[in-house]
Amino acid sequence: RIEKIQSKAVVRVLLFILQKEFRQIFRDRIILAMMTAVPIVQLIILPLAANFDVKNINVTCVDYDHSSYSAKFLQKLSSSGYFRIVSAPVSHRDALEWVERGRADLIVEIPSGFERNLVRDGAETVSVSVDAINGTKSALGAGYLVLVIGDFNRNLDVNVMSQTLSGATPARFIEVTSVNWFNPLAEYKYYMVPGILVLLLTLIGGFMTALNIVREKEVGTIEQINVTPMRKWQFILGKLIPFWIVGMIVFTVGLTVMYVVYGIFPQGSLAVLYLFAAVYLIALLGFGLLISTFSNTQLQAMFVAFFFMMIFMLMSGFFTSIDSMPDWARHMSKLTPVTHFIHVVRLIVLKGSGLGDVYREFLYLIAFAVVLNGLAIINYRKTA
Q: CA 347, 351, 354, 359 torsion: positive or negative?
């Protein structure tokens, strides 16, 4: 009978905390908007801006030949879909001014005798100068230009004619055909949108819980809670559950936006996806509560949370592949729950992976959830 009374008291205390937390969440309209409306707007806008496909590369062309072949080459360049010819100066110095002003990214110089040398010798050199201030754009732009030049060269009749007249056997090219699995058209939105959804969930859950207990300290209500017979795990659990529910709602709304706006529907099981989201939110909210137990003011909690969020964003594989990182960075990235969840979401959404394919990631997230929430409970000190 005593144990039954104690269990009822534990449930009543937990329900009291939950009631208090939900009232506090719905009372503050700014926080409610940050947790619901802001992620929706960001999920709609950010994938449109965070697009690493390089198009409309500005090119200035210096044509010293002015022949029919140089005109065909420039037409091939402008019709490729990647380049936009913005000027045709008469010298390299004039073209360089366009680059220095930021109005051009590449300089293409066609030498005099371009058509004559192609017809007579079957070969000619084109000069390409690249503005390398933007490393990504310059590297991709130069790569695209090499592909366009190679395609133009293969379609030239003079190369085949010169080999035939000289009695040489026409060169045979080995053609390499590539196929993109799980994203046939290589559309960047299929890669970015799931990752952005995870990051928004991380930002909302991490920041909100990191400020939660600190807000109680600043207002003074934490002292009233500490003098109650409430246990530490009850307090942490009461702080975690409301934000976990809100996080699952945000995740559901994000999946809806992902389908309605971008036409992306998970190829794998929704149940597995929600299972990972539930465990990930527990781990993330425990991390935020751990920060909140260490901090004395909301400003301290915000700075600490922002520091870790930047690490999560840069080392989670969202912007750059983890395989391209140094060894120390790869090992460090595995110590963040965001890395594992982004990997899982992309596998389930794009590839259709099942629980058997990602069970290791699931074990990682469970370990993070247990350790982070355990540390939050241990570090929270009840002092009157």
A: negative
Span 196-242, pLDDT tens digits: 888 888 888 888 788 878 887 777 777 777 777 778 888 888 888 88
Q: What is the pLDDT of residue 4?
A: 64
Distance CA 298, CA 214 (A): 6
Rounded Cα distance, 332 and 102, in Å: 38
CA separation for the pair 59, 56 (Å, rounded): 9
Q: What is the DSSP letter of 350?
A: I
* Beta bridge partner(s), residue 109: 62, 127
Contacts of 311 (CB under 8 A, 6+ apart): 336
CA gap 127, 62 in Å, rounded: 10
Q: Which residues lie below 8 Å from residue 156, measured CB to CB, with a gap of 6+? A: 118
Tokens of 345: 């979401």
Distances (CA, A) of 214 to 135, 208, 209, 381: 43, 11, 9, 13
Task: Quickly tell me which residue has 């001014």 as its tokens.
Answer: 97
CA 320 to chain centre: 8
- Best CA proximity match to 105, nearest among 136, 75, 68, 74: 136
| Spatial contact of 234 and 14, defined as CB atoms under 8 Å apart | yes
- Helix axes 359-379 and 270-294, enclosed angle (nearest 10): 30
**Cα dihedral 19, 22, 28, 31 in deg (nearest 10):** 150
Kindly list the distances between the CA atom of residue 117 and the CA atoms of 114, 123, 125, in Å, as whole numbers in the listed order: 6, 6, 9
C-beta contacts of 364-368 below 8 A and 24+ residues apart: 364/334, 364/337, 364/340, 365/276, 365/279, 365/280, 365/283, 365/337, 365/340, 365/341, 366/279, 368/283, 368/286, 368/287, 368/337
Give the pLDDT of residue 157: 62
Per DSSP, helices labelled H in the chain are 2-27, 29-49, 68-78, 92-100, 114-121, 135-154, 157-165, 189-210, 212-219, 221-226, 232-262, 270-294, 298-315, 327-333, 337-346, 359-379
pLDDT bucket at 317, cuts 50 / 70 / 90: confident
Contact at 8 Å (CB) between 318 and 341?
Answer: no
Whole-angstrom distance, CA of residue 162 vs CA of residue 276: 63
Residue 198 tokens read as: 């995870």
Question: Whole-angstrom Cα distance, residue 185 to residue 80?
Answer: 17
What is the pLDDT, as a whole number, of residue 160? 46
